[in-house]
Design a protein that fits this description.
Length: about 290
Amino acid sequence: MKIIDGKELSAKIRQTIKQEVQEIKEHGNRSPLLSVILVGDNPASQSYVRGKENACLSVGMENRTIRLDANISQAELIQVVRQQNEDPDVDGILVQLPLPDHFETNPVLDQISPDKDVDGLHPVNAGLLLAGRDGLLPCTPNGVMEMLKSIGLEDLSGLNAVVVGRSNLVGKPLSLLLQQKNATVTMAHSRTKDLAQICSKADILIAAVGRPKMITSEYVKAGAVVIDVGINRMENGKLCGDVDFEDVKDKASAITPVPGGVGPMTVCMLLMNTLKAYKEHESYGR
Ligand SMILES: NC(=O)C1=CN([C@@H]2O[C@H](COP(=O)(O)OP(=O)(O)OC[C@H]3O[C@@H](n4cnc5c(N)ncnc54)[C@H](OP(=O)(O)O)[C@@H]3O)[C@@H](O)[C@H]2O)C=CC1
Ligand SMILES: Nc1nc(=O)c2c([nH]1)NC[C@@H]1CN(c3ccc(C(=O)N[C@@H](CCC(=O)O)C(=O)O)cc3)C=[N+]21
């Protein structure tokens, strides 16, 4: 069984991003800039945002974190998003989710200019993905595809993929990307009947649910590739995936760990999207 090391793979990809950023700056151009908007003081969100700041630093990109009080209004938050849209130095805008309860998420995300939507969550980018056209892809799904590519799974013709979870952030876009690569995709969710039986037909099994260790060996076909997107914080403070790693590892042909799996790839794809947005911005000479 092979462990797909997301930390190692993301470090490798970050290295190429770093080189490109360096070349950009050596030619006297401005640096790509990611702007992260954090509302409130949710500890998990704060830690993710620090992770994004460090990632930008590690590749020499500029980073701006806008920390806002949890009590600001929806209108005030939208004003901040608009300022970032209008700022020509800003290539990428990310509104850290979840927002505090009194905000409506979709109307806020809808305000992000699609060309700066490095999370790939704006309806325009979601629509481009659905249509199989070029746009900014959501980071976690894109990171999973990179992990599959790294073990030689690029064309998925003839393979069955089962994605457990159908969120707009992960399950739904990932299902589309897998299908684009010619996998035969099943999207499973909380209303799915006989989940274990369906999962056990998968050559590629993806867990994006948010239930610690729910995927045990009975869900897994011998030799399957198992990708664990879940990030669950346990009472002891440790992170745990949706897959019961110890139980599944000897049955799978390849498996991603948590931590050190999909999480670091997500952050890496965010940098890649910011660089992509930068290139688009520069070539259109705004
Ligand atoms: N590694 C990373 O970078 C990232 C990790 N995550 C993690 O991935 C996980 C999923 O995130 P996200 O998609 O945002 O979560 P959501 O809560 O938005 O979606 C969860 C999905 O799982 C389904 N589900 C819930 N319970 C079951 C069940 N018992 N059996 C089958 N399906 C079930 C839900 O079904 P239904 O639609 O019917 O409700 C839903 O589609 C979380 O642990 C999250 O922390 C998220 C983003 C990035
Ligand atoms: N607008 C928005 N976009 C997101 O992409 C987004 C979000 N909001 N809100 C929360 C989720 C979650 N998410 C993670 C990113 C990195 C790790 C990550 O790097 N995890 C490390 C461990 C980090 C640690 O130790 O805490 C790992 O798995 O090895 C995890 C989870 C992005 N999300």
